[in-house]
Amino acid sequence: MNSTTILGGGLAGLSAGLVLTRAGRRVLVLEREPALGGLARTIVRGAFRFDLGGHRFFTRDKGIEAFLRELMGGELLSVPRKSQILLRGRYFDYPLRPLNALSGLGPWTTVRMLLDYAVEHARHRLRPPASVSLEDWVVSRFGRTMFEIYFKGYSEKIWGIPCERVCTEWVEQRIQGLSLGVAIRRALLGSAADLPTLAEAFLYPALGIGRIAERMREEIEPDGRVVTEARVKRLEHDGGLVEGLAVVRGGRSCVVEGDEFISTIPLTALVRMLHPAAPARVLEAASRLRYRDLVIVAVMLDRERVTDQTWTYVPGADIPFSRIHEPTNWSATMAPQGKTLLVTEHFCFSGDGTWRARDEDLARMTIDHLGRMGFVDRREVIDSAVVRVAKAYPVFEVGYREHYDRVCEYLGRFRNLDIVGRGGTFKYLNMDHAIAAGIEAAERVVRRSGRERREDLTEPVLARMNA
Ligand SMILES: Cc1cc2nc3c(=O)[nH]c(=O)nc-3n(C[C@H](O)[C@H](O)[C@H](O)COP(=O)(O)OP(=O)(O)OC[C@H]3O[C@@H](n4cnc5c(N)ncnc54)[C@H](O)[C@@H]3O)c2cc1C
Fold it and tell me: What is the whole-number distance in angstroms between the Cα of residue 390 and the centre of ligand 1?
């Protein structure tokens, strides 16, 4: 007893486990998948390695950067970022550089873009608009031409709903502080590199992002336990306290008891696991929160290198994937010498045509498109791999907040349950935020463990979730 059970072995859960272990607490991490790392794991296929969509580590939080550097020792590479976007059949630097855009989009489009921007900028200054959707937000800051060319296609591919249905919260978190003015200043003076969206370089473990989770496991064990292929099925609770978990592993069920629980599993799944069940209005609210899913298709090639890019963004609706990365540009050890691989991200909703398509069909279709884009000669293809990633992105659909608040309000009653992480809190967190959230959850548990009776835990969970 006097132990903490952590639901989910992604970066948030493992960071919490690591900090608690260092503080001398007994820790049990339960992870459903055979491998740790959650969204930030690295798949190994023969001698090839790839992330579930390239994961760069960048943070403005010096404490989190120090935590990572100390954990990873000499494993981290500093990788320059160089990305491009395919617009109207041509590749442009990403983020756009004004001179590059001017020469590529043609004078008429560029003038329209700048005029639109000037009008919106003046209007914005006179009276800041009340933006509800991603579309309002972008148009009022960048102008409609820029929105149509640059933001609309990619955003709608990611979210699977029209931009007028995506609420501003995402865009505010994603492109904080970014404006065309900032982008131009950066292009001319290189002065905005501290914005995460525009950072010029990032950290990356030589053997893939999944090494971070593996290193965390090594630090947690042998004092603590990290158990994979252990699926949490039910949370038993009574009187505002979680009493235990029903866990399935290898076809067998068992009950795990504990004093403190930290959940990083998707919020909507957590609510459905409660026993006794949450009230119908809470379950109904949870059913209105959606995640976007993802299918990764990797194509291994008998060629030294295809691109020199970190990412290639593909907003066009005529191409099924949204982004490509070539892991060997991140770290040469992601493929055997003389070989490389391209990794494509197909956004979808689980159960739709993409999600249900056969692996061979997904691979064939991806290779066809990569061939037409001039990236791949089919004779060079050595192998392919398909990985389905459920609940990759919380979808911030206009109106979601009301449902979200209702779920949080209910979960706020559990005094020994901390809820953190990306899917856990339904927030657009990057790895640095997920790590920070895990560390903070562990610190709260350590502080609370100073108190003698569990009934004395009065810190409102709702405030912690929204912190
Ligand atoms: C395509 C893509 C690209 C990204 N690129 C970047 C990037 O470049 N830089 C960056 O900083 N961030 C990036 N991110 C975000 C990053 O992946 C996340 O912020 C981070 O991995 C979230 O960690 P987490 O622990 O909060 O959640 P997760 O990684 O989702 O961990 C939750 C864990 O809970 C487990 N679980 C779920 N249900 C159960 C259950 N019932 N029982 C037991 N275990 C369960 C899951 O298997 C998972 O391992 C990207 C994300 C995606 C999808």
Answer: 10
